[in-house]
Design a protein that fits this description.
The protein is α/β, with parallel strands linked by helices. The protein is built from 7 helices and 4 strands, in the order H-E-H-H-H-E-H-E-H-H-E. The strands form 2 sheets. A two-stranded parallel sheet has the order 1-2. A two-stranded parallel sheet has the order 3-4. About 5% of the residues have low confidence.
Length: 150
Amino acid sequence: MIEKPLSPEDVDFVTTLHGEEQISFIVLMQPRGDQADVLLRAIDDVAMGELKEAVREGDLPEGDEARETAAVSLEYSLRALRAAGSEAVGEVVEEHPLDKLKTVVDDSGADEVIVMTAPHYVEEFFHRDWASRARHKVGVPVLKLFAHSE
């Protein structure tokens, strides 16, 4: 599960996690949430010392407007994973992402889940971040990774 396009460093990291073993990915792209999430993201930006980002949080697409951006980000990430030699498919998940994740794990027989996000300090503190919530839902190991930032 990702929330932004995978950087070249992210692709290199996840495709080499298991050494030379051939792996495949089912990528679920979570679009940005709605306006209610703006405050949490702004607090995270301030905690990371990214004051300019905190100010711009309200200017970025949300909800319905974020779906197109998510689809482009997903396609970019899938192409990057394939170029690195992995099989990769995916979809943008708009509703009930943890239910969708559970279904994908069950249907595919996945060995593990990787949740790659930016740090979300408030959600992590209260164990409300995607990785913490997925650990209680999917029935396989969940690895939480922080995405590389520019």
